[in-house]
Amino acid sequence: MDSIIRARDIQREFGDIRVLEGLDLDVRPGEFLAIVGRSGAGKSTLLAILGTHDLDHGGRLEISGRDTALLSPPELAALRREYLGFVFQDFHLLPELTALENVILPAVFSGRDLGTARTQAAEVLSRLSIRADETPTTLLSRGERQRVAMARGLANGPSVLMADEPSASLDAESEQTLFNLLDDLRREQGFALIAVIHSRAVLERADRVLELRDGILHEVD
Ligand SMILES: Nc1ncnc2c1ncn2[C@@H]1O[C@H](COP(=O)(O)OP(=O)(O)O)[C@@H](O)[C@H]1O
Ligand SMILES: [Mg+2]
Question: Is the pLDDT of residue 157 over 90?
Fold first, then answer.
């Protein structure tokens, strides 16, 4: 099957610092791809580029066969909305809002039908055992907040979910719970998962592990 993400010769520098030095990557539909690498290796930089949040790179990035360099900002936003979901390390939840409101927030800004968005959000939250009207979000545990963030990432039914160290702040048990859920959801919904991971226990679940080193990706056995 064709790659959902195809990256060729991706380069990124910040001033004199060259972080990515001609990196290639193919993401296959449905796979769990783990990315490892020392701190400062460029993992977050890579995810920002793959997620089309950082457009300031060399090389070619295709998402679902479309060359992102040829798209206007609204076309790019539409592509992101159709294919990509994100879970951020520090959740990026708004504490004043309920779990459901946090999950449908991207839909509010993207002009989607809110009734549909609300229904889908409620389904994903219930799948993750979070009460939709749970409020304020600050009362939730870290593991629960991470699940709300994940529900938001999955709310639009993405082809690829990108997660930058999603379990960094979780204890080992909450981490396993999170990835058990992700495995189940991936089997049900078929999205690919690209995650920056440190924990050895989680790496064992991945279909492929790639190490970012010297600005490119290396296969890890
Ligand atoms: N916006 C930026 N401006 C300048 N340097 C940056 C910026 N973002 C990242 N860097 C640098 O790029 C390198 C890679 O950073 P990052 O992608 O965050 O690494 P990782 O996620 O692997 O820890 C680091 O040296 C970091 O200081
Ligand atoms: Mg990082």
Answer: no
Rounded distance between C-alpha atoms, residue 142 and residue 170, angstroms: 7
Q: How far apart are CA 134 and CA 99, in angstroms?
A: 6
Of the listed ligands, the closest to the CA of 12 is: 1
pLDDT tens-digit readout, 173-196: 888 888 998 898 899 889 999 999
Q: How many other CB atoms sit within 10 Å of the CB of residue 26?
A: 14
**Ligand 1 lined by 19 (C-beta under 6 Å):** yes
Predicted confidence (pLDDT) at residue 156 exceeds the cutoff of 90 = no
Which of the listed residues 19, 164, 197, 212 should we mutate to test ligand 1's pocket, taking the one with most ligand atoms within 8 A of CB? 19
CB 17 near ligand 1, within 6 Å:
yes
Q: Please give the Cα distance from 146 to 123 (Å, whole number).
A: 17
Q: What CATH number does the domain located at 5-220 have? A: 3.40.50.300
Could you give the percent of the chain with pLDDT greater than 90?
59
Atom of ligand 1 nearest to the CA of 15: 4
Q: What pLDDT does residue 205 have?
A: 94
More confident site: 108 or 84 = 84
Domain definitions of the chain by residue range: 5-220
- Ligand of minimum distance to the alpha carbon of 90: 2
Residue nearest to atom 24 of ligand 1 (CA): 40
Identity at 201, one-letter amino acid code: A
